[in-house]
């Protein structure tokens, strides 16, 4: 396939989206805890490849996470090795529903990506380059 002519490139990092459910009676505290995450937890996430990481929380408790990483399995495994992650997971566990007692990192549901604007624009530009 020809290189895109409009300057767009397919992303080199994997985009990952996941969901969890926060207990309705803990929503406010969950928001407060994430307004000032521990500096060593922030550093661990960055060091293990969790980039452009965001959490979105609905009033019904639906938590949606999004991140970009070179290798999600490696990023998760490296976080699992961090002592700060073990402490954070233990503190956050009571906030979640439906995890069966597992850490949130092991219990979330990863959603498959079905559309990405930049990827399709890059593909369309490449297909149109030879016409």
> What is the helix fraction of residues, given as a range?
40-55%
What string, H for helix and E for strand, traces the elements in order? EHHEEHHEHEH
- Structural classification: alpha+beta
Dominant shape: globular
Separate helix tally: 6
What is the β-strand count?
5
- Residue stretches low in confidence (pLDDT < 50, at least 5 long) are 1-10
Straight-line distance between termini: 12 Å
Rg (C-alpha, Å): 18 Å
Largest sheet: 5 strands, antiparallel
Beta-strand proportion: 15-25%
Mean pLDDT: 89
Provide keyphrases for this structure.
five-stranded antiparallel β-sheet; alpha+beta; disordered N terminus; 131 residues; 6 helices; globular
Brief sketch in words of this structure:
This protein is an alpha+beta fold and 131 residues long.
Description:
41% of the residues lie in helices and 22% in strands. The protein is of the alpha+beta class and 131 residues long. The longest helix has 13 residues, at 117-129.
Blueprint (SSEs and pairs):
Elements: E1 14-22, H1 27-35, H2 39-47, E2 51-57, E3 62-69, H3 72-80, H4 83-92, E4 96-97, H5 104-107, E5 109-111, H6 117-129
